[in-house]
């Protein structure tokens, strides 16, 4: 027998077989070990064997049904990222073919995990990379669901933002991503009609976002939250109606932050936009 396999894990062939059977919940420790082998410092053979298994899983049309199980049971960031990659591909290319209850299930699960992790300062800072990836997944969902099938998204987000400073900081990150996706990165991924619809929704909901930004900048002492809000404003300033800028205290608020070294660069970017 191979001396390397005296530990808890079965040999690679058995691991592969175990993982490829998606008729039952995937064995998360075995998946963790496979992902670790792919990213690890083992032999070239071990890495390419792991690569082969992971590719097979990614290409399996049922693999996405295992994603929630993996996210709930793995402590390994690379494994979670692998699961989210599988989910992102389904959202991008197969979303509209999924039954409504499956779409709602994904939407609610991702939203809940984001709120749960960002409502606590410690978990939010520790899990930041994971939360950032979940934010990206949420924005991919929004590109399909909003505004028609998720009309309350912006009001819900703004309400959630007022419940805690770390949730608010993450809401700013989501809004920034949404603006960038629609205005900067969407070419080739969405039809012109869809981009137009999203732009018009963002425009009509902008008053709420604008009020939230002003509220945060006048009320918070958190430097992370101020920076996140200024970065979000910067993403929006290139396309928002000019009236907002001159009819509101936005300009004065930005000028208030300009003398502070910690915020000067972001403030300057906003002012020059």
From TrEMBL:
Domain of life: Eukaryota
A GO BP entry: ribosomal small subunit export from nucleus
Alphabetized InterPro entries for the sequence: ARM-like, ARM-type_fold, Exportin-1/Importin-b-like, Importin-beta_N, XPO1/5
UniProt GO molecular function: nuclear export signal receptor activity; small GTPase binding
The Importin N-terminal domain, residue ranges: 50-116
Entry GO terms, CC: cytoplasm; nucleus
Any Pfam family: IBN_N
UniProt record similarity statement: Belongs to the exportin family.
Name of this protein: Importin N-terminal domain-containing protein
Lineage: Eukaryota, Viridiplantae, Streptophyta, Embryophyta, Tracheophyta
């Amino acid at each position: 027998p191979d001396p390397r396999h005296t530990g808890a894990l079965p040999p690679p062939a058995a691991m592969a077989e175990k993982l490829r059977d998606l008729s039952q919940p995937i064995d998360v420790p075995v998946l963790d070990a496979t992902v670790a082998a792919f990213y690890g410092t083992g032999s070239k053979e071990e890495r390419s064997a792991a690569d082969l298994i992971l590719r097979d899983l990614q290409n399996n049309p049922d693999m996405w049904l295992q994603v929630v199980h993996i996210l709930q049971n793995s402590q390994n960031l690379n494994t979670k990222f692998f699961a989210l990659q599988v989910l992102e591909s389904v959202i991008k290319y197969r979303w509209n073919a999924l039954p409504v209850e499956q779409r709602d299930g994904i939407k609610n699960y991702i939203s809940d995990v984001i709120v749960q992790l960002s409502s606590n300062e410690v978990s939010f800072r520790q899990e930041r990379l994971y939360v950032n990836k979940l934010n990206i997944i949420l924005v991919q969902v929004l590109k399909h669901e909003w505004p028609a099938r998720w009309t309350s998204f912006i009001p819900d987000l703004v309400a959630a933002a007022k419940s805690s400073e770390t949730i608010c900081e993450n809401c700013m990150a989501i809004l920034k991503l949404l603006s960038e996706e629609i205005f900067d990165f969407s070419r080739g991924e969405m039809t012109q009609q869809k981009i137009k619809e999203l732009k018009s929704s963002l425009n009509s909901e902008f008053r709420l976002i604008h009020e939230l930004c002003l509220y945060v900048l006048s009320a918070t002492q958190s430097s992370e939250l101020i920076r996140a809000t200024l970065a979000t404003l910067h993403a929006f300033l290139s396309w928002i109606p000019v009236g907002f800028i001159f009819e509101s205290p936005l300009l004065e608020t930005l000028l208030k932050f300009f003398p502070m070294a910690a915020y000067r660069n972001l403030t300057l970017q906003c002012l020059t936009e």
